[in-house]
């Protein structure tokens, strides 16, 4: 079983950490059986599962449901639950109460976006034995302040802030940190500076691990394709062809056949 020690140890041995998101039982089971190190129940469920434009609307109850069904499937991977918008920013007590709910239903850790404004909450969670994954660079829960899903850390000043934030998260006790949509060189500098693993998404090859949204790599979410996503399958097309055949079969009376009847 993958533990927090396994993940931290992978930075030391140089073994890359493979992570994907999951939101439901069947996909989580496939990911786990494929050997994924970390499965993140991402608040990207708001986008690729629920069709929302941002991650802001997803609620604690919805994230708890996704986390619960993913945990039903996972036997080996380290499950991290994304804390939704306003479930940890409001107070340290809220952060503890809400993070604890994810651990009670089977998650091994939680992920929070940002640094300075939530550093007290992160320290408290870590003190209480709740592992925390940090997240800097593009932080989708702050999308309206950022002004769009654009590359972060493009000026030296911005780059220094992201580096500083990542160091702050390490000092606060995070066991790893997601670097989202930043230049590869900046991600390399952060990865070399930190002793905890960096997990990149749109942050180049030098991170200690990589994470992508599973619906993106499988071609299940087709509304748009970020530049950093590699498509490994075209399940949207496969499913579309399958359900069209079923539709035709029903219309023609070709389904059910004798073998499907009693
Ligand atoms: O919600 C999510 O899927 C994420 C990853 C993309 C890092 O935060």
Q: How would you describe the overall organization of this protein?
A:
The chain is an alpha/beta fold and 262 residues long. The chain has one domain (4-231): TIM Barrel, CATH 3.20.20. The protein is built from eleven helices and eight strands. It has helices at residues 4-13, 25-33, 45-48, 60-73, 92-104, 119-127, 143-146, 156-172, 184-193, 214-217, 235-252; strands spanning 17-21, 38-41, 78-82, 109-111, 132-137, 176-180, 198-201, 209-212. Strands 1-2-3-4-5-6-7-8 form an eight-stranded parallel beta barrel, surrounded by seven helices. Helix 2 (25-33) links the parallel strand 1 (17-21) and strand 2 (38-41). Helix 5 packs across helix 6 (119-127). The longest helix has 18 residues, at 235-252. The N and C termini lie far apart (44 Å). The model has no long low-confidence stretch (mean pLDDT 98). The structure holds 3-methyl-2-oxobutanoic acid (KIV).
What are its keywords?
alpha/beta, single chain, TIM Barrel, about 260 residues, 8-stranded parallel beta barrel, about 45% helix, binds 3-methyl-2-oxobutanoic acid
Give a quick rundown of the structure:
With 262 residues, the protein is an alpha/beta fold. The protein has a single domain (4-231), classed as Phosphoenolpyruvate-binding domains (TIM Barrel), CATH 3.20.20.
């Amino acid at each position: 079983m993958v533990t927090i020690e396994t993940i931290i140890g992978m930075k030391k041995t140089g073994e890359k950490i493979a992570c994907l998101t999951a939101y439901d039982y069947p996909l989580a089971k496939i990911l786990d059986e494929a050997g994924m190190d970390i499965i993140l129940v991402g608040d990207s469920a708001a986008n690729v599962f629920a069709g929302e434009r941002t991650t802001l609307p997803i609620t604690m109850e919805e994230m708890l449901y996704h986390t619960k069904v993913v945990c039903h499937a996972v036997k080996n991977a380290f499950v991290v639950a994304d804390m939704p918008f306003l479930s940890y920013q409001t107070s340290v007590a809220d952060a503890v109460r809400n993070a604890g709910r994810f651990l009670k239903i089977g998650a091994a850790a939680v992920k929070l976006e940002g640094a300075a404004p939530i550093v007290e909450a992160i320290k408290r969670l870590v003190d209480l034995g709740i592992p925390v994954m940090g997240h800097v660079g593009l932080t989708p829960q702050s999308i309206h302040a950022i002004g769009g899903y654009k590359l972060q850390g493009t000026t030296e000043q911005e780059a220094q802030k992201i580096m500083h934030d990542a160091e702050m998260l390490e000092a606060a006790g995070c066991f790893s940190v997601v670097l989202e949509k930043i230049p590869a060189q900046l991600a390399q500098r952060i990865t070399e500076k930190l002793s905890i693993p960096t997990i990149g998404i749109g942050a180049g090859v030098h991170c200690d691990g990589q994470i992508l949204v599973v619906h993106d790599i499988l071609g299940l979410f087709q509304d748009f394709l970020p530049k950093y996503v590699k498509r490994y399958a075209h399940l949207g097309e496969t499913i579309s062809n399958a359900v069209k055949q079923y539709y035709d079969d029903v219309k023609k009376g070709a389904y059910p056949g004798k073998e499907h009847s009693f």
